[in-house]
Amino acid sequence: MRTYDLLVSLSLISLALGLAPAASFDGTPEPAPSASPSSQPSMRNLGRATPLVASPIAPPAGLARPPAAAARIAPTPLEAFRSGTQALRDGRTEQGVTALEFAAVGGVPGAIWKLGRMYAEGDGVDQNKLRAFEYFRNLTKAHAYDPPGTPESRYVASAFVSLGHFYLEGIPDTSVRADPTVAHEMFRYAASYFADPDAQFHLGRLYLLGKGTPKDPIQAARWFRLAGNKGQHSAQALLGSMLFKGQDLSRQAAMGLFWLTVAKDGVAKDGGGPEDSWIAESYASANAQATEDERALAYKYLEDWVRTRKE
User: Fold this and answer.
1) Is the pTM of this model over 0.70?
2) Per-residue pLDDT tens digits for 212-230
3) How many C-beta atoms surround the C-beta of residue 241 within 10 A?
């Protein structure tokens, strides 16, 4: 594990030197900056490893390979993944897990990711964060080179984000210690190479807090805007609050209220839970403090936002 982490660290440190911070926020709606090919991280020099796109994945330590009977669930690992996910939907958890384990050993990214999520959350299995960590780590090691935009890449990006959270907190009584610097690297890779909005949001938070990296509100705002333009509601709300309050940025109340409105409406549309209540509260507070002119300009920004997404 240490060798892999060191290699990823070296690759991502070189990436950091090539990413320029956002220049400014002038209050004018504009297309979000996107990572150009020259600014995306290169994994070609990540040691001498060769991408293992379709190679079998070893089960996490302590997890025996699925019994031979599992192979009879479906002729191929991909079909086992499909039958396993259907079994989980039908409430046949044991059968579903067995099929997913067979698919994971066969190298199916969706199966590896699904098992990682199940063990991380204790969903249908006993919670085991170390086992979840190992599934996610296996997935990123085998597929970090996969091209962005493929159906499988979303699983890989999510695995990097999950590893980032594990490194932020550590896993008690295991060798996985809290290391915000490595967490920053995990988020940064998924945010830059895969353009994952959740990774961009969490990376922005680390820059905002100065955790695992020097504090940099401009970089934080840049990543929040990238994520916000992809519909990441927490990023929209934090960017809106920063701009409305003038928190480490020049104050742009109308633009801030616009982003808070987008976040609030998005959460309402998606049926957000109690953990999202702070977004509506932030919007209500800003809206109450805004002047009529600021509300009118924020509404104009909102009209432009809606129109551009219909075109």
Assistant:
1) yes
2) 999 999 999 999 999 999 9
3) 21
